[in-house]
From TrEMBL:
This is Galactocerebrosidase. Its EC number is 3.2.1.46. Residues 68-368 form the Glycosyl hydrolase family 59 catalytic domain. Residues 527-701 form the Glycosyl hydrolase family 59 C-terminal lectin domain. Belongs to the glycosyl hydrolase 59 family. Pfam families: Glyco_hydro_59, Glyco_hydro_59_C, Glyco_hydro_59M. The active site is at residues 211, 293. GO terms for cellular component: lysosome; membrane. Residues 1-33 form the signal peptide. Residues 376-491 form the Glycosyl hydrolase family 59 central domain. SUPFAM superfamilies: (Trans)glycosidases, Concanavalin A-like lectins/glucanases. It comes from Crocodylus porosus. InterPro entries: Aldolase_TIM, ConA-like_dom_sf, GH, GH59_C, GH59_cat, Glyco_hydro_59, Glyco_hydro_59_dom. Keywords: Disulfide bond, Glycoprotein, Glycosidase, Hydrolase, Lipid degradation, Lipid metabolism, Signal, Sphingolipid metabolism. The gene is GALC.
Length: 702
């Protein structure tokens, strides 16, 4: 609890009244500290108590630490914001406000997005701006929209682009983007150019290849090309900052390759999931150090504890001046890999329900009271009995201190393994020196994570703490976060409760008849291999002018283990009994094929092992029923008479342990045993990377 200062009832007394209002259960500690001060000093200020207070000086007299670069989050890597775009208003805007609006919620300083590459990148695929070599479209997907929404709320937010996968044409048949570096450079620079030309977005940083190796010639060429691009964009903006980064400290030994005068300098070294530690080789570069992907943890109280700890300790232990969370918002089906690993949850556009999770408010402790360009004070940063603190200044007299006391079991991130440590309650006295000695009071924001009832206190303002002759004392318990600041701009905004959670509609239809869609993908379909886009079928004179088309015709340069078939899932993972109907159009002659499926049990990075009940038809006139996407488990096969370039209607019914299929309204096969999987999503897809169309999708499930 906060304590110190003089006068009347004293700050501790005021804080006690605030805690009564908040239902605080730890007030005896505050009373003990207050009684100790009153007995030793008549004016209520104390530098000692029943427990010895540890001393922590904060001083700018002898210089400052590293420049602070911000706190951010990742959309992508992949398809993590897929369902967000389908939310109805006002809920979609409310979610965006909680993420990006300054002094509102998370108030993020940076947004990192995936440069879509048509390949699986964790929870789905994101479409490329260049599916094919002569194809350019800077309106595909939703990352352009998301960056604009972020900029609309915070014009100063920094934008970062990073590829996970690349379209197959870049590799010329090889699963590698660097054999033809000039081609890869053209592809990436086109994305930067398209962001500015079509969306007026300035990209601040660009990455090489997520968590994969890099190529010297490629980096040299892209640096030169971006400089040329900046020249072309000079009429819009005279400066575009640019950064290349390494995603694992193990690559740092290769920095020697780029020490030659002919190679442009690399300003930043960035790592993923560094465990708050930095290797000596990184420090010796004397460059900025970032944790450019971190967190990746279920967004309950433990996730909040993880996030509180790494945001502070990435600097305290590792001198990292920026931390970026994967991921921004859990807007993908929860049963995909790493469900609910976002700072907040928004995975039900059909109901409008979303949840502002604890990590949002833990983020606010730092982001609402700092800005990129502030500077860390030189301080040890470790609390005597566990936990950490950082202090930052804007150089104009403002000071922000963030303290966390997260215990081991309540702050474990998903990776890396967290070695044992202990944290206990403690008294901490801070001494403000240098230009901060005359600070008279600090605003106080407080969180206490509750791991029993999950009734946490999150980002609550307390009464200001008075600073007496540059000194104040805090009584710290475990699993707390404090922000103490000279700024008075912090706010905890709340909207009315969103609609209650509802399962995916059990009767769902989509005829794809949208003339000018706002987004390239149909609502609620989550592509797991391949890309399914709205399509205008000008050659069709009948009822199938507006369709959904699978458009990736060459295996991409993969980041994950994409399937050999394309697949897009939809619905409720808990569905057991269902009837799926869809019109299908095979475009590839001879060996083309499509499927509809139910009880689909997998996706994301595990898509190759997907099981379910799959009803396939092929251009050679045959059909097949399989228990898996890979078509290794054959349940039934035969002749169907299906032809390519002709519309057909497929129907799949799953009821209990039995499956049946219809073609054009007539039974084709019946009562095939279907015991496993017992539940799962509905899906559509193709035999290979090939063009195919779908229309009039309908699922009834229970």
């Amino acid at each position: 609890m906060a304590a110190s200062a003089a006068g009347g009832m004293g700050v501790a007394g005021v804080l006690l009244w605030g805690w009564v209002l908040l239902g605080c259960v730890w007030c005896p500690g505050l009373l003990e500290a207050d009684a100790s001060r009153s007995s030793s000093h008549g004016h209520g200020h104390s530098r000692s108590s029943a427990r010895a207070a540890a001393a922590y000086p904060l001083d700018d007299l002898h210089g400052l630490g590293r420049e602070f670069d911000g706190i951010g989050a990742v959309s992508g890597g992949g398809a993590t914001s897929r369902l967000l775009v389908n939310y109805p208003e006002p809920y979609r805007s409310q979610i965006l406000d909680f993420l990006f609006m300054p002094n509102f919620g998370a108030s993020l300083h940076m947004l990192k997005v995936e440069i879509g590459g048509d390949g699986q990148s964790t929870d789905g695929t994101e479409p490329s701006h260049m599916h094919y070599e002569n194809d350019e479209n800077y309106f595909r997907g939703y990352e352009w929209w998301l960056m604009k929404e972020a900029k609309k709320r915070n014009p100063n937010i920094k934008l970062i682009g990073l590829p996970w996968a690349f379209p197959g044409w870049i590799g010329r048949g090889e699963n590698w983007p660097y054999d033809y570096p000039d081609v890869t450079v053209y592809y990436i620079v086109s994305w930067i150019w398209g962001a500015k030309q079509y969306h007026d977005l300035d990209i601040d940083y660009i990455g090489i290849w997520n968590e994969r190796s890099f190529n010297s010639k490629y980096i040299k060429n892209i640096k030169t090309s971006v400089r040329c691009l900046i020249g072309l964009l000079v009429e819009y903006r005279p400066h575009v900052s640019f950064c290349l980064y390494w995603l694992n400290w193990k690559f740092l030994h290769k920095l020697a390759d780029f020490s030659q005068p002919t190679f442009p300098p690399v300003p930043n070294n960035w790592a993923h999931y560094p465990g708050t530690k930095t290797v000596d080789a990184a420090l010796l570069t004397k460059k900025k150090l970032w944790s450019s992907e971190d967190y990746s943890t279920f967004n309950d109280e433990v996730g909040a504890g993880c996030w509180a700890r790494v945001m502070n300790q990435n600097y305290v232990n590792g001198n990292m001046s920026a931390t970026i969370a994967w991921n921004l918002v859990s807007s993908y089906y929860e049963k995909l890999p790493f469900g609910r690993n976002g700072l907040m949850t928004a995975q039900e556009p059909w109901s409008g329900h979303y949840k502002v999770e604890p990590p949002i408010w833990i983020t606010a402790h730092t982001t609402q009271f700092t800005q990129p360009g502030w500077t860390y004070l030189q301080a040890d940063g470790h609390l005597k009995k566990g936990g950490s603190y950082v202090a930052l200044t804007d150089g104009l007299g403002n000071l922000t201190i963030i303290i966390e006391t997260m215990t081991h079991n309540h702050s474990e991130c998903i990776r890396p393994r967290l070695l044992p440590f202990s944290v206990s309650s403690q008294i901490a006295t801070f001494y403000l020196k240098g230009s901060f000695h005359n600070v008279k009071a600090l605003q106080v924001w407080y969180s206490k994570l509750d791991f029993g009832s999950a009734n946490s206190t999150l980002f609550q303002p307390l009464s200001p703490i008075e600073v007496f002759e540059g000194t104040f004392t805090l009584n710290l318990d475990v699993d707390e976060v404090y922000t103490l600041t000279t700024l008075k701009t912090g706010q905890k905004h709340m909207y009315r409760e969103p609609p209650p959670s509802q399962p995916f509609p059990s009767n769902y239809k989509d005829d794809f008849n949208i003339r000018n869609p706002a987004f390239s993908e149909a609502p609620n379909f989550a592509d797991q291999t391949g890309v399914f886009e709205y399509f205008v079928n000008t050659s069709d004179p009948g009822d199938h002018i507006y369709t959904l088309r699978q458009v990736v015709v060459q295996r991409p340069i993969t980041w994950a283990s994409d399937a050999d078939q394309t697949i897009s899932i939809i619905g409720d993972f808990n569905w057991v009994n269902m009837t799926i109907t869809c019109d299908i159009y095979i475009e590839r002659p001879h060996d083309g094929g499509v499927f509809i499926a139910g009880r689909v049990d997998n996706g994301g990075i595990y898509v190759r092992r997907t099981k379910g009940i799959f009803f396939w038809v092929f251009a050679d006139g045959t059909y097949r029923v399989t228990g898996d996407l890979a078509r290794k488990v054959v349940l039934m096969k035969g002749l169907a008479g299906v032809r390519d370039r002709t519309w057909h209607t497929l129907t799949l019914t799953l009821k209990g342990s039995s499956a049946s299929g219809w073609l054009n309204g007539y039974p084709l096969w019946e009562n095939v045993p279907a015991f496993k999987p017992s539940n799962g999503w509905a899906a559509i897809g193709t035999r290979s990377f090939e063009f195919a169309q779908f229309d009039n999708f309908h699922v009834e499930a229970s």
